[in-house]
Each structure stands twice: as structure tokens, then as C-alpha cells.
Task: structure prediction
Amino acid sequence: VEEIERMADNDTLHFSLSGTGPAMFSWMVGFSHGLQESGILSSSSPDDSSNTHHFMGISGGSMCAALLAAELDLSSNSDVMLCGQEQSDRCRDGKQTLGMLVHNMLEDLLDNAAVQRIINNKRRKIHIAMVDAPSGSLMKAYNQPIKLCSNFTDKEDIKDAVLASTHLP
Result:
């Protein structure tokens, strides 16, 4: 608690959200919900950029970063948790790929207002880790520098960035 209180006194917070895979996604959403509930992500105004929180994510962490920037409810009985469970079950049952899980979740959860909050949010900025895979080769991707994507134009742009992040070697 003392650490959270100390962090809440700072003007800017930075969070790195790791990869999760379908099995640990619920844990990461729960962690992200804890950030929401703690009050350390609060700001007086959506347009107030003096108290900016930066979320850097990779794979499932990039999904959580987007959901935090969209200011969606991440509680245990939220649409996010229900959608995540449904989509993860479909992956485990072999009915869809990880790429389809990411696409379907973002398609279901990000309405126009949520997309605009991600694009225009001055309080919560997301940075999604990506790497080039020359000729589509994951082996060649290991030698490429990691890039952070932070500016998005629309829902497809957000979905593409999160999807690319889920395949980061």
C-alpha cells in the first residue's frame, strides 16, 4: 500500500504489461482491473495530459494496454472477462487460432467511443511492441529491433498492432 501511495504522488506512471497467452490473459486483466480500482490511474479531466500513464505491452499485455486506454470495465464479471473466456475456450478447443482470438475480442469490445478514447486519450497512452519479420520469417524476426507503435488512426490500426504484437518472438 505504501508503494502505491508513493506512486500515486508522481505525475507520470509507466507500466510494462507482459505477454500472457490465453491461459494467463484473465490474470493480466485482473491485474489491470486492480490498477483501475486502486485510483492511481485517476485524473481530473480526460484532456489533462499533465498526469499521463504510459502502458507498454506485448502480446496479451498489449491487449490489456489497449483495454486500459479505452477505459473499459475490467472487473471479474465484465464483458472483457466474459469475452476473453469465450475466445480462449474456442482456442483451446481448436475452433480458432490465436490471431482470430485477438481479432474477435477487439472487434467485440471496441466500439467507436472506445476506439476514440485509445486514439485521443491524453491520460493513458499505449505503446505496442512489434518487430519486422522479413519475408514472414519468425527466425529472421529475432535479429530485428523492437519497435513501439504509439499512434493509431482507427480500429483496424489498433487491431493490426495488437495482433502483430501477439506474434512477437
Summary: The longest helix spans residues 21-38. Helices lie at 2-8, 21-38, 60-69, 79-92, 98-109, 112-120, 138-141, 155-166. The mean pLDDT is 81. The chain is about 50% helix and 15% strand.
